[in-house]
Amino acid sequence: MSNSTTPHFLERFADIVRRFPDRIAIEENGCATLTFAQLQERAIGLAARLRERGIGHESVVGLALPKSSDFIVAVLGC
Fold it and tell me: DSSP characters for 7-64?
């Protein structure tokens, strides 16, 4: 259950990035990988591109992606 003392998911993710930036966050097909820092960088980049197009915090964004690192980036960046 969530309450005011429970950290928001993105706050927890940011804490993990600060503590373990070079650890592997995503591994695809046993070869392509992203560290937590790279994952955060890509998500921040996507969020910036969305803001440039007028899409903000309360906007609804549909995702039509297969299970992949791009999907995780999109979830974090939206």
Answer: PPHHHHHHHHHHH-TTSEEEEETTTEEEEHHHHHHHHHHHHHHHHHTT--TT------
